[in-house]
């Protein structure tokens, strides 16, 4: 069996369990699924900054936005032009004479009485439709910046299908190239009015009639979206973890978050678990003044502050590990705290599970000031003959338990039993 491996049935069961939450799973290795993700209304109770990024990602992946980006080069090469009237002074009359301007010109130049100011027809690109394109480019550039936090050194080539983040990066490049269009540089951006949208919809060019109008309507609709609009947007797609280890982590983290939420009367910070390498938290407050925090793929503080502590203590030769635990749970109350670090292994291989125990020992050694009660290192794996179900040994630092047991064990440790008071500690 591979190190991180679930049976097809187990994988599908976990996907079904967490599917409604996968619209926020943004790990680069995740595969984009266009199928509806189900009811995602609970995801709207997120921190505004996180929600903004999620909406930006999903906006960039909307077919109308992708189609607009793909059509930009050809569409901008054949812009819609409007008519204009320019006044020119000439002795030959080849258009309608502007007598008022003619008199003003002759007053300024008395020697040119035979000259006339003539109104000549021309064309201009400064139209409401083109100002709408300039506006749309500016809006989408900001959306892309919100959605994507990395930059590819080279455009992806030779791939049959782009990953979701590569699609967004391609859109970014298309928007940048559009800004180099000479005639567009002279156009000021203007939010399209209802009349402009009608004009776009009735245009002869497919680029204006379909690509620009549809993309503008999507962006306008998300300017101040209702909860129902946001839910519908997020439900259109989700990001499926590519490997079993990621999926297992999502499922366990969600089980923990839901178990604590059921017992917490005060949800202080909306839970969020995105796989982009940033810290993810779910925090819960209880009536006794304690607070429980669940974090994924991060330490409570940064590696930089950790290195400073080691430098200040002059512990030469001992450097903190850059590895990040899968999940860490911390409970704080009146200056005292307790914590456990969870290493998740989607495996039934005994030797691979032993590696997990070694990693836990390293985590415990890295942050000795964090741990209160024992066991402080929990190895979580699917139920299997590789380990037997046992109660936690309060005299031993490590504990192995199944994914089915971990949520109950965590709430029993951090909610039911509570922490010692300051006098007891």
Structure description:
This protein is 41% helix and 16% strand. By secondary structure, it is an alpha+beta fold. The chain folds into 3 domains: 151 residues, no CATH class; 43 residues, no CATH class; 173 residues, no CATH class. It has a 7-stranded mixed β-sheet with strand order 6-7-8-9-10-11-12, with helices on both faces. A 3-stranded antiparallel β-sheet has the order 2-4-3, covered by helices on one side. A hairpin with a 5-residue loop joins strand 7 and strand 8. Helix 3 runs parallel beside helix 6. The chain starts with 7 loop residues before the first helix and ends in a 9-residue tail after the last helix.
Q: Mind summarizing the main beta sheet?
A: 7 strands, mixed
Secondary structure tally, helices: 13
Number of E-state strands: 12
Shape: elongated
What is the string of helix and strand elements? HEHHEEHEHHHHHEHEEEHEEHEEH
Radius of gyration: 31 Å
Low-confidence stretches: 302-317, 419-425
Strand order of the largest sheet: 6-7-8-9-10-11-12
Structural class: alpha+beta
Total tally of structural domains: 3
- How big a fraction of the residues is strand? 15-25%
What's the helical proportion of residues?
40-55%
Distance N to C terminus: 46 Å
- Would you tell me the overall average pLDDT? 83
């Amino acid at each position: 069996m591979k190190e991180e491996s679930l049976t097809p049935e187990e994988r599908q069961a976990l996907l079904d369990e967490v599917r409604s939450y996968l619209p926020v799973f943004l790990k680069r290795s995740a595969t984009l699924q266009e199928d509806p993700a189900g009811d995602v209304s609970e995801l709207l109770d997120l921190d505004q900054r996180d929600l903004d990024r999620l909406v930006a990602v999903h906006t960039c992946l909307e077919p109308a936005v992708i189609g607009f980006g793909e059509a930009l080069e050809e569409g901008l090469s054949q812009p819609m032009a409007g008519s204009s009237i320019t006044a020119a002074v000439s002795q030959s009359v080849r258009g309608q004479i502007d007598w008022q301007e003619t008199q003003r010109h002759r007053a300024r130049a008395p020697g040119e009485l035979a000259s006339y100011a003539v109104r000549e027809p021309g064309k201009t690109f400064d139209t409401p439709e083109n100002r709408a394109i300039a506006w749309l480019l500016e809006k989408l550039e900001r959306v892309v910046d919100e959605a994507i936090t990395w930059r590819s050194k080279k455009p992806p080539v030779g791939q049959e299908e782009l990953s979701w983040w590569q699609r967004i990066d391609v859109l970014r490049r298309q928007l940048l190239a559009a800004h180099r269009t000479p005639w567009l540089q002279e156009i000021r951006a203007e939010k399209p009015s209802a009349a402009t949208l009608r004009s776009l919809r009735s245009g002869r060019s497919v680029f204006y009639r379909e690509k620009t109008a549809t993309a503008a309507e999507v962006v306008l609709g998300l300017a101040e979206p209702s909860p129902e609009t946001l839910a519908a947007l997020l439900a259109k797609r989700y990001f499926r973890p590519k490997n079993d280890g990621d999926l297992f982590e999502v499922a366990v983290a969600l089980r923990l978050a839901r178990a604590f939420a059921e017992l917490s009367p005060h949800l202080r910070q909306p839970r969020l678990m995105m796989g982009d390498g940033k810290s993810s938290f779910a925090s819960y407050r209880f009536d006794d003044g304690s607070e429980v925090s669940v974090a994924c793929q991060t330490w409570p503080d940064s590696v930089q502050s950790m290195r400073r502590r080691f430098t200040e203590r002059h512990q030469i030769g001992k450097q903190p590990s850059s590895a990040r635990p899968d999940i860490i749970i911390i409970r704080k109350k009146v200056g005292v705290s307790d914590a456990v670090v969870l290493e998740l292994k989607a495996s039934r291989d005994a030797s691979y599970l032993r590696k997990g125990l070694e990693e836990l020992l390293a985590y415990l050694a890295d942050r000795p000031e964090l741990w209160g009660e024992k066991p402080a290192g929990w190895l979580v794996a699917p139920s299997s003959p590789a380990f037997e179900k046992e109660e936690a040994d309060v005299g031993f630092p490590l504990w192995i338990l199944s994914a089915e047991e971990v949520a109950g064990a965590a709430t029993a440790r951090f909610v039911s039993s509570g922490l010692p008071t300051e006098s007891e500690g």
